[in-house]
Inverse folding.
């Protein structure tokens, strides 16, 4: 129920029509007894981003999520940026503070919690990241911080993988990340199996019959394949992973947990694994409608 005390949260981005975030947050608010409503706010003109944030602040919004294309553009308008978000260079969650909004990035902690929930560990693992876009960069940072034993970043455009590796290696003060051209996977040792994080857009709806690497012999090297795509929920990459004998996971739990962490930041309410599982089922049902 919405009344005079309802606190407002929402999503700013463009477009925002297909978001599942209102389903996640409004369900959590109902389940945790918080008087909170979550709404989509399309900011169609990027020039008006500052106006949108000042408006949200003036109207006492509790918090906001930020999506494409504003995850980096929003930073200059913030009162403060969390250290991890500043390193990643992108924020997806704004929390109201006394002077303005503080920006966080819950995508990477979200991926980490999703992996924990799926029973996929990172510490001490040999990991391949496919892709070198914004998300791949943040994944590589997370893996370096969580002490993966070996991190290789493979990308069609080698220069982008090299740029990410050199930035993280400088930050970490060691050769934590090794850049490779995508097709160089053939040089990886046979018999060794990797945790592979698929962070390209290949295979995303409507291009569902494509995988970034199609050769089946690659998948003999995959112990677990984690696709960050969640539409569809069974990608060609996941199918090839299973055919090669590996476990396959989709990106929907990452989406769910980035939302859960944002909700925890706004409300101070800790979401149990039980409620996370209930929310997962609820949002899946909503997606089928
Ligand atoms: P991005 O910055 O646009 O990067 C795209 C990457 O895909 C680049 O490395 C690009 O390689 C590669 N790529 C595109 N087409 C390719 C092709 N035909 N063959 C080989 N490589 C190709 O994208 P992003 O923002 O990092 O997002 C990456 C993925 O993460 C997307 O699928 C997105 O849906 C997913 N994601 C999931 C969540 C979640 O909550 N689950 C959250 C955010 C993003 P080049 O550098 O060579 O162009």
């Amino acid at each position: 129920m919405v009344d005079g005390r309802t606190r407002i949260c929402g999503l700013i981005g463009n477009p925002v029509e297909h978001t599942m975030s209102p389903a996640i947050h409004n369900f959590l608010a109902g389940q945790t007894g918080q008087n909170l409503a979550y709404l989509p706010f399309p900011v169609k003109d990027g020039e008006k981003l500052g106006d949108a944030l000042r408006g949200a602040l003036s109207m006492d919004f509790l918090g906001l999520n930020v999506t494409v294309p504003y995850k980096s553009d929003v930073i200059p308008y913030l009162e403060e940026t969390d250290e991890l978000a500043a390193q990643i260079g992108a924020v997806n969650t704004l929390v109201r503070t006394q002077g303005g909004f503080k920006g966080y990035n819950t995508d990477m902690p979200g991926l980490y919690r999703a992996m924990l929930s799926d029973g996929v560990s990172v510490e001490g693992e040999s990991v391949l990241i496919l892709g070198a876009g914004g998300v791949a960069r943040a994944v590589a940072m997370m893996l370096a911080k969580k002490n993966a034993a070996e991190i290789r970043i493979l990308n069609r455009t080698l220069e982008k993988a090299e740029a990410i590796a050199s930035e993280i290696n400088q930050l970490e003060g060691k050769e934590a990340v090794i850049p490779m051209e995508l097709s160089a996977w053939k040089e990886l040792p046979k018999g060794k199996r990797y945790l592979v994080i698929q962070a390209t857009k290949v295979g995303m709806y409507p291009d569902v019959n494509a995988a970034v690497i199609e050769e089946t012999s690659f998948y003999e090297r995959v112990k677990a394949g984690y696709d960050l795509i969640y539409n569809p929920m069974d990608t060609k990459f996941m199918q090839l992973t299973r055919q090669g004998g590996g476990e396959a996971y989709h990106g929907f739990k990452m989406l769910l947990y980035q939302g859960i962490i944002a909700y925890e930041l706004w409300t101070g309410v800790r979401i149990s694994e039980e409620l996370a599982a209930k929310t997962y089922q609820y949002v899946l049902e909503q997606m089928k409608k």
Notes: The pocket of NAP is lined by residues 107, 131-136, 155-157, 160, 199-202, 204, 212, 228-230, 251, 254-255, 258 (CB under 6 Å).
